[in-house]
Amino acid sequence: MRYPAAPRGHAAEPPTAHSQSLTTRLRLPGDSEHTPGQARAYVGLTLADWGVAEAIRADLQLIVSELATNAVTYTHSPEITVEIILTDDEAAVSVGDLGPHRPLHAQHAAPDAEHGRGLLIVEALASRWEQCRDDGGGTTVRAGIDLPGRPAHPTAHSGEDEADVPRGHP
């Protein structure tokens, strides 16, 4: 099995196996318009190499693109970290930033708004998503999709201040 290379000039940590899971991280600039596309490509290549079904890869690529775009657009973080996790029952991505932490909520945008739908897309595609404040004050947003043939997790979380709400994956 080969592992995709990080985009030129960026450091990726090699995948590590932890009791039935694979994890890899990629650090990208937090101030580049190219960062969301690089995150999306890295997730796609990595999950393909790990044998994840195309539909789940595509959903996680869209999710990571939305999360990376939010981090680049709103946090003014010098760097973001993209993490990919594959377990027996879930494929997940997370995006961490070093910007100031602020609670995130999926909100409906006006029909003519050019922005504001990213977390709605994440919420629609992910089996669950959550956010947490990092030790350094930044934010990490994680979204996972249940793998077919596996039981769904009992709850999902869509924000720090909201109750657990189950989410289905189409």
Describe the structure in your own words:
The chain is α+β, with helices and mostly antiparallel strands. The chain has three helices and six strands; from the N terminus they run ββααββαββ. The chain has helices at residues 35-49, 54-74, 118-125, and strands at 16-17, 22-29, 79-86, 90-97, 128-133, 139-146. The protein has a six-stranded antiparallel β-sheet with strand order 1-2-3-4-6-5, covered by helices on one side. Strand 1 and strand 2 (22-29) form a beta hairpin. Helix 1 (35-49) packs antiparallel against helix 2 (54-74) and helix 2 (54-74) runs antiparallel to helix 3. The longest helix is centred in the middle third of the chain and has 21 residues, at 54-74. The radius of gyration is 15 Å and the shape is globular. The two termini are 29 Å apart. The relative contact order is 0.16.
Strand percentage lies at 15-25%
Main sheet specs:
6 strands, antiparallel
| Class by alpha and beta content | alpha+beta
Strands side by side in the biggest sheet = 1-2-3-4-6-5
Number of strands: 6
Task: Give me the number of helical elements.
Answer: 3
Order of helices and strands: EEHHEEHEE
Shape: globular
Quaternary state of the chains? single chain
| Mean pLDDT over all positions | 78
Helix percent band = 25-40%
Radius of gyration: 15 Å
Distance between the termini: 29 Å
Uncertain stretches of 5 or more adjacent residues: 153-170
